Amino acid sequence: xxxxxxxxxxxxxxxxxxxxxxxxxxxxxxxxxxxxxxxxxxxxxxxxxxxxxxxxxxxxxxxxxxxxxxxxxxxxxxxxxxxxxxxxxxxxxxxxxxxxxxxxxxxxxxxxxxxxxxxxxxxxxxxxxxxxxxxxxxxxxxxxxxxxxxxxxxxxxxxxxxxxxxxxxxxxxxxxxxxxxxxxxxxxxxxxxxxxxxxxxxxxxxxxxxxxxxxxxxxxxxxxxxxxxxxxxxxxxxxxxxxxxxxxxxxxxxxxxxxxxxxxxxxxxxxxxxxxxxxxxxxxxxxxxxxxxxxxxxxxxxxxxxxxxxx
Length: 311
What we know:
This protein is 36% helix and 28% strand. It is of the alpha/beta class and 311 residues long. The strands form 3 sheets. The chain has a 6-stranded mixed sheet with strand order 6-7-8-3-9-10, sandwiched between helices. Strands 2-1-4-5 form a 4-stranded antiparallel sheet, with helices on one face. It has a 4-stranded antiparallel sheet with strand order 12-13-11-14, with helices on one face. Helix 3 (93-103) crosses helix 4, helix 3 (93-103) runs parallel beside helix 5 and helix 4 packs across helix 5.
């Protein structure tokens, strides 16, 4: 049994199966990624883990506690970062955190210490007396995360925490996730940003249309899309003779004449790159850029569903 154990869980809204027979386990101390497009069922699933919604059928346990039978015990162990900002805009950051600390039942003697800790994690202690309505979108999201940490939860669930924010705040949030995990916190991170999940998580579930369509270690999942890489060469004066010469090179699986130039499919791009470039430059072609596209989670999703992750 995992630290979070989800077994044959269903949840429908009318005729829509938001979560359809999902089973997975999250182990203690890991950053577990839940990847999928908007509408895949990610938010519904984590709302059930956090006891905000009940499942229609199936079972969910968190740290051994059943979410239906013992919701209070589950809630004390979870910090939830919702997709929507859950802050009062007319209050300061410090006032917001103090409010949520009281909602968590923190004693008055501990409240200031916990608020200061949360502000430090957010990197916004110097702005604690400013109203939330004066904050940028990224700063609001950082305080949103800080609020979920006030009661020192064992598990942090983050639902699309970097949507619509600036690069600096995104980096701060990703660094915060890794720092919290290094201290032993279990984190469930949901996103439709493939690169974030790939950066943070070792084990990943890919979700689409309410179902888990792939589950495993990051490198295992990439193998589902095949082990070949693509070398994309932006070049002028590409003709079929050049395509034929590149195709004939040992180690090349295929070569395609694209609108931008040539796409070459190879098993080992590092070994083949210089030979492909040399062959291209033998004729009248002028190369303007070279890009190696290795298998990633985006290509896994495309392979499994026939559509891009953000379609």
